[in-house]
Write a structure and sequence with these properties.
This protein is α/β, with parallel strands linked by helices. It has 15 helices and seven strands. A seven-stranded parallel β-sheet has the order 1-2-3-4-5-6-7. β4 (129-136), α6 and β5 (155-159) form a beta-alpha-beta unit.
Length: 369
Amino acid sequence: MHLPLTDPADAGSIDVAEFARMADLFLARGFVYFDVASTYHDGQCEAALRRAVVERYPRTAFELTDKLPTLLLDDEQQQERTFALQLEACGVDFFDRYLVHCATRAFYEKAEALRSFEFVERKKREGRIGLTGFSYHDSPELLEEILARHPEIDFVQLQISYVDWERTPIQARRCYETARRHGKPVVAMCPQKNGMLSDVPAEVRQLFRAHRPDLAPAAWAMRFAASLEGVTTVLSGMSSLRQMEENTAFMRDFEPLDAEERRIIEAATDAICRTTPVQCTSCGYCLPTCPQRIPIADDLKLYNARTAFGQTEATGPAQYAAFAKERGKASECVACGNCERACPQHIRIIDWLKRVAEVFEGTPAPAGV
């Protein structure tokens, strides 16, 4: 989802040459796990992986994970065609791991209607898939239901970060404990919350630096997830050679968090939750669903910055007006709920847009918001 781009405004313009340099370093340092999906980078991720890795290394040199794009499927028969196209796009004849994308209850219900779990098990029997799993962004109760119904699944991919562990609607700890209670290994995704925990408030950066001046904030986030028993892989979403160099350096000689570092993580969580009220990761899943074309992620990021730094040139009305110029204003939200259903962070977007309108447009928020 975060490969380097030649044009920052075009998600499909993957810089394959830079990607190849990143892959070279990654593999040279002993790492092998690549995670792609048909929906990443405007559909260009799989082809870029083929050019940067598959065509340049023997198949035994790397492990490849892809995902059944539940959102894009309309009927059960389409799964076979989609799977074949994914193999072709990646340039391989099997996937080491393959996930049913059932992030929320709506995704899961669709996957059941399409018999997607049965489909991936069949592909496993055919030798086209090594291990089967599913990626997940919903409640521990639903996770319990899925694992009870599908004990054949080999692993679970969960959103795990230190901020989401106890403090947000993600309920990362309870989801992790549910997966482990069922004996499932866990792949941790979003340990840095799409970069939020790499660019932390100054207070948090100082906390980390005082204890370990050699480690960047991203390293603390990665180490938190990797220190959990049963977490086999941590997906960091690196987008530059510099990030690759930093992340592989500390993960190559991995040190689990000690008791003092866990206390520091807890203090960091306090500071982040105090200064970053909206836990939006700017993933953009909400944007295509909004009938008013409101730049939701930009508005929420701006609101967070206003909370942390007060009104400055970068957090004032002019910046808000620039976001709204080509799209909608927060006050134009019709409360349809589409964005909240699409949000993997379970953010109460409608309520927060009311707050954004109050702060940047002078529109009073209703009582209780």
